[in-house]
Design a protein that fits this description.
By secondary structure, this protein is α+β, with helices and mostly antiparallel strands. Helices cover about 35% and strands about 35% of the residues.
């Protein structure tokens, strides 16, 4: 599994960003290989973003080439460059 962490500054209000998250969520639910997506806001910096959990690097890369992914900067009125980290999941712990 692969985690992709994305954080960005937006020219939009927090409520506008949250509304867009809600509007676009159904499109993400349909993406092959996307196991989970957490929409986030950094309490210290005010940045918005997401944590994506992918089944493979290939699924993540295919999404990167999609219109949905390419529309992110304009949709969220991103200021500057987003911060992106790609992480391998090396161990999982499930609490029941």
């Amino acid at each position: 599994m692969i985690i992709r962490l994305v954080k960005f500054r937006s020219a939009l209000s927090d409520s506008a960003v949250l509304k867009l998250y809600d509007q676009r969520a159904p499109q993400y639910r349909k993406l092959p290989g996307l196991l989970q997506k957490y929409y986030i806001k950094d309490q210290q910096t005010g940045e918005h973003g997401a944590v994506y959990l992918w089944d493979s690097i290939q699924s993540m890369e295919e999404c990167q080439q999609s219109n949905l992914s390419r529309s992110i900067p304009e949709t969220y009125k991103i200021i500057g460059q987003p911060r992106i980290e790609i992480l391998d999941v090396v161990y999982t712990l499930r609490l029941h």
